[in-house]
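Team,

Forwarding the record for the chain on the shared tracking sheet. I've put the sequence and predicted structure together so nobody has to dig through attachments.
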Amino acid sequence: MKTQTGKRKLLSLTTAILCGAFGLSTVAAEKSTVPVIWLSALPAIVPVENSRSTVVRNESGVSVRVNTRDLTPGDAYTLWMVAFNYPAYCATPYACNDFDIGNPEVAADVMYTTGHIAGRSGIGNFAGHRSIGDNSGSIFLADAPLPPPEGLQNPMGAEIHLIVHSHGPKISEFMPAMIKTFGGGCGDMIPPFPFHLPEWGPFGPNNCESIQAAVHGVTP
């Protein structure tokens, strides 16, 4: 019995050391898994077949994953995280949408997560992590009239939307901007933002379009 107790104490100590060494948190995590849906089908909810998105939260940040398909081979895609930090203040509480971006009470932000070129299978696997207070990759980091870059403020309570954003066929001269910026390689304007800033990537001949999304809500 004493040996088992000693092993448990050693395991607890080892876990604490590893968490400290690698910046991990011992705070209990919450996990949610939802289907990825087609934005073109809204207001109908049409899932992308055999797709899913997972968000794991704790007090220190969120880890996100999107496993999707039916992407166009050879096209460039980016994944964006929309964090509605205080969803109770959305126009429809705990059911936020684009129109709530810019409301200072909601403190929403749109932030780059990752990007890649779709392979021949059309399968897209995106993943990333964001720590509390991190506003890197925000599309609002440019000067006014953009809202301030809020970053992730409330990892346990934020409503998280993950957006798969198409940049059209890969064009070598616009790489890597096509997989690292909001508008790289595109010449069109993307609602609800009626202007195209240099920080969003260079103008190109393609059209950008947000095509898929996963919504991870929270319980009031």
